[in-house]
Amino acid sequence: MADVAEIRHRIKSIEDTHQITKAMELISVAKMRKAMLKHQYSAAYFDTVRYTLKDIMRHSTDIRNKYLMHRPDTRTAYIVIAGDKGLAGAFNSNVLNLAWEHMQKRPVHYVVTIGQMARAFFESKKQQVDLEFTHAVTNPTLHDARGIMRDILELYDRNLMDEVYLVFTRMYSTVKHDPQMVKLLPIEEKDIQAEVKTTYSGEIYYDPSPKEVLNVLVPQYLTGMIYSALIHSSASEHASRMLAMSNANKNADKMLEALNLDYNRLRQGAITTELLDLSSGRFSQS
Amino acid sequence: MNKFFLEIITPEKTFFRGEVESVNIPSIGGSCTILAGHQPMVFATEPGSLLITADGVTREAFMSEGFVEVRPDETVAFSEAVEWPEDINERRAAEARERAEEQLRRNRSAAEYRLNRAALQRAFARLRVKNHNHME
């Protein structure tokens, strides 16, 4: 049986950990809310970008744009978004494994990582990381998304890759978030998720031409996709961390309860023996 | 004068919502004025100034690249950045102009040239809107 001092020490250390996990849970809740709020603001904007792009693609099929043209799909680039830190349950490994599995089927692939956990994962798998973005995970901004979009487009323009996939974690609700893979380039009509609003059913004219409008829309579409992926990923990370931490809290509470019981029993036992010792000493004296 | 509903949306916020008489947009094909009852259309815009006339008062704002959708029920303008003159940071815009000019002189590739030209266009448009101060 452990002695009183040892149990007291364990209780203390569990209490300390408990305090940390409790703080982390609260922080994750706040950060998740903030990310969701940010997403709400931009959603209206990028939904319309997607919708308009889809509308143009549906009505004017003869448009030639280098980002819409299909290339032979042998060289694939993956943009993998994971977190900067661990301690978030299976969040990082889920999304990274999805990317990893898909990669094995492609003869030539490039890896672009966003987030330190993603880079560490591919390094441990001996997979070369071709491009890396830091600072975009903890607090994603439009500026980050624009920068990433620009760099990817430049590589695509130099004909280094045929397709670009975005691998990230989509957040459905606080308890449901699944890793997902979406094709970023070339843009295909079927890949664009936008519900068709039927406020106006007639043909819409584009000024100066559908092609010019498309040229403006494509970079914005890509920025929007990357931005929303970054935000979804960050919200999912915080949600998973929140769940992981709330489990940790529950475990800590359970352990503390058991340990406190043990501690009290031992302490009471010690007091009883001491009293017995005292009283028996007293009796033998008199 | 007939009025129509105008909404100006950026990724960060809804910049403007309300009934207006006319709006002048920096379309790629040249500046364009939209009045009530306009044919449904989508305009692509380049960085420039946006003139909003509501209740007889015209205000100027800076509008970055984007597009304007004219629907039968309302007109919605989308842009990555729309700013009132008082919100424009003049020093930043001037710095951006110098940076873009410097980069343009170096002129490395066609893609870079386009990027820098757009940056220069934005900087010029911001400075123009800031110094006009349409508040009559």
3D structure, described in words:
The complex is a heterodimer of chains A (286) and B (136). Chain A has 286 residues and is an alpha/beta fold. In chain A, 59% of the residues lie in helices and 13% in strands. In chain A, helix 3 links the parallel strand 2 (108-114) and strand 3 (131-133). Chain B is an alpha+beta fold and 136 residues long. Chain B has two domains: 4-85, ATP Synthase, domain 1 (Sandwich), CATH 2.60.15.10; 88-132, Single alpha-helices involved in coiled-coils or other helix-helix interfaces, CATH 1.20.5. Chain B has two helices and ten strands, in the order E-E-E-E-E-E-E-E-E-E-H-H. In chain B, the strands form two sheets. A five-stranded mixed sheet of chain B has the order 2-1-9-8-5, with no helix packed on it. A five-stranded antiparallel sheet of chain B has the order 4-3-6-7-10. In chain B, helix 1 runs antiparallel to helix 2. The longest helix of chain B has 23 residues, at 110-132. Chain B is globular, with a radius of gyration of 16 Å. Strand 6 (205-207) of chain A pairs parallel with strand 5 (41-45) of chain B, so a sheet runs across the interface.
